[in-house]
Amino acid sequence: WATDIQAGSQFGYSLLWVVAFSSLAAIFLQMLAARLGLVAGKDLAQASYERYGRFGRVVQWITAEVSIIACDIAEVLGCALAFKLLLGVPLAWGVVLTALDTVIVLGLQGKGFRQIEAIVLGLIATMAFCFVAQVAITPPDWHAVVGGLVPGDPGHDRKDAIVLALGIVGATI
């Protein structure tokens, strides 16, 4: 989300097309993985295991682990920062609260998947409500939004725009 905020604050809506493209690319890649599962009866990890030798599998494993760790660090720090901004909790305690939250959600897995689904559905509904409220309180310039969906020259600081666009693609896909 930090990349999107930086892109929006620096370039307005001019990089919105990157978000749309990245979302479509992510959907396409998910469809390919689903088709692999339907046609071959294997998930992506099983297909990679059969296709690549030991070295290739180890490289994929290390890459996946590093990516997961980087994503988890960003999510934990983001949650801790949210606790700090919303409740005034110090960052270290925000990390502890985030870890506690994770343990609680993992503990709910033993109670049944429906409870976790209900919690996630409640969180998604809350986010949707907040987005709608935000648009109602501070309506965007819809002409600029539609214009941002068309690729174009971001104007000044093209290098920054490219870096942010790559960050958006990496965060989305």
TrEMBL record:
Q: Which domain of life is it from?
A: Bacteria
| An example molecular function term from Gene Ontology annotations | cadmium ion transmembrane transporter activity
Q: What is its main location?
A: membrane
**N-terminal signal peptide:** none
Transport as a keyword? yes
Query: Is the Lipoprotein keyword given for this protein?
Result: no
- According to Swiss-Prot or TrEMBL, what is its membrane topology? Multi-pass membrane protein
Got a GO cellular component term for this one? plasma membrane
**Which chain regions cross the lipid bilayer?**
15-38, 89-106, 118-137
Kindly state a single biological-process term from the GO annotations of this entry: iron ion transmembrane transport
Which keywords does this Swiss-Prot/TrEMBL entry list?
Membrane, Symport, Transmembrane, Transmembrane helix, Transport
Record protein name field? NRAMP protein MntH
User: What species is given as this protein's source?
Assistant: Burkholderia cepacia
